Input
Amino acid sequence: MSLPDWEEEASAQKSLLNLGRNEIKRRGRQRAAPTSVVTGNGSLDMASSRSEEKVNGFDDELTPRLAGDRLNVLLLLFLYVLQGIPLGLAGSIPMILSSQHVSYHDQAFFSLVFWPFSLKLIWAPIIDSVYSKSFGRRKSWLVPTQYLIGAFMLLLSVFADQVMDRSNGKSPNIYVITVAFFMLNFLASVQDIAVDGWALTMLSKRNVGYASTCNSVGQTAGYFIGNVLFLAFESAEFCNKYIRSTPEPLGILTLTGYLWFWGIVFVVSTSFVWFIKTESDDSHDETEGVLSAYWTLWKILKLPSVMKLCIILLSSKVPCHTFRFPSLTPR
Output
């Protein structure tokens, strides 16, 4: 199964920010004239040779080692898996709608639920700049957001059958479903921003590169659990063919039960993170405020290399969609 569009867009946004930060640092190094200390006999000072070793990659202090960070890596992986669950469930809804013969117009309207991950760059500076120092820079957003996701899933599990209209055979209420999963994905995007920022201080400097690995693996695994796994065990045909010996009219899993289970998991795991996991001091990387964060973002977006990347990303899928749309036209 190919990676979903939201994951490609999220990865592209992170690549864009990293590229911009590297470009700003490169220009700063170019403006600073390189200096070297020369001893009386004309030889280079040991400090400059030590700096050259770091540039060439021989600094042992930056060699990745998981010792001391294994639990942090597992925690990050788990948080990213949780992040992928609501996204996977949102991706499974169109399949359920198709089985109930919902029109293409309604299915296209439901696709709006994936916009928060495409637009999260807009509210990311707010999440990065506004927080409670006593509670923690990242936990100020992570803990309440995950509690809201859990509560939203528990509430949705109560009205899932009614909203999907599976009990009385009517057409699903596409507007209520879209609003509900739009809010879930919006909260998941906030959680993603908070976890991405926490990963930079949760892991030691030598292991910070594992954060992107946890992101890719965790989100993909969470999406698989919330989408493929749920659809397989929700299907009565699949369960009767491969699991059960006696056929039954329903699958092993239901949307109501699945939402309830993961709602409980979100609430319990968030409580564990709140009371057990401490957040390291992040004051060395404090921003001056929301406006300063947006100004930094604007400077990154104005970089020539970033602008070229934006043009490529915005136009790369145009040919694919041009040839895809005619196939949806009824014959």
About this structure: The first helix runs from residue 5 to 31.
